[in-house]
Amino acid sequence: MVNIRNVEWTDLPRLVAIEHQCFPKEEAATKTAFEERIQRIADSFFVAVVDNQVVGLVNGPVISQPFITDDLFSDIKDNPPTGGHQSILGIAVAPLFQNRGIASALLAHLERSAKEKQRDTVTLTCKEELVYFYERKGYQNRGVSNSQHGGVTWYNMTKSL
C-alpha cells in the first residue's frame, strides 16, 4: 500500500536517486534544487512511501502566472497561503515501482491539497509522450511551452480546480 506525505529532510538522498533514475542529467533536479524546495515549498512537496521506503515524488511552487517558466527551476519563492497556480516541476516514481498507480496517486494528492488552498489551477509541462496521460487526468493541452529546460520540447498542461 502507498502512503503519501509531505517531504522530510531525511528523504533527500532518496529523492536525488529517484530523480536521476527517471530523468536525463540535463532535466533532473539537483541536490541543491531539492534542498531549496524542501526548505521553501515543503507544503507542496509530497513523497510516496511503500514499506517505509520513498518510491516517488511530486513537487512545485505556487506561481502567479498560469504557465511554468524556466526560472522556477533555479529560483523558488515561498508559497502564498491561498490562491495562485500550483505548478509541478517534477513528478517521478522509482523504476521498480512504476505502472502501479503511484504517479496518479501523487498527482491526485497534490491536486486535493491545491484545491484545499484555493489554487486556481494545477500547471505543468510534459513531453509529448505524456500529454495523453495528463489529458486522461483532466488536464488540457495548452500547446508548446516556451521552456528550454533540458533542451527538449515541452507542452503546457493545465487543470482547473
From TrEMBL:
Pfam families: Acetyltransf_1 (PF00583)
Tagged with keyword Transit peptide: no
Assigned keywords, A-Z: Acyltransferase, Transferase
Domain N-acetyltransferase residue range list: 2-161
PROSITE patterns the record matches: GNAT
Superkingdom in the source lineage: Bacteria
InterPro entries assigned to the protein according to its UniProt record, in alphabetical order: Acyl_CoA_acyltransferase, GNAT_dom, SNAT-like
Protein name from the UniProt record: Ribosomal protein S18 acetylase RimI-like enzyme
Organism: Ammoniphilus resinae
Taxonomic lineage: Bacteria, Bacillati, Bacillota, Bacilli, Bacillales
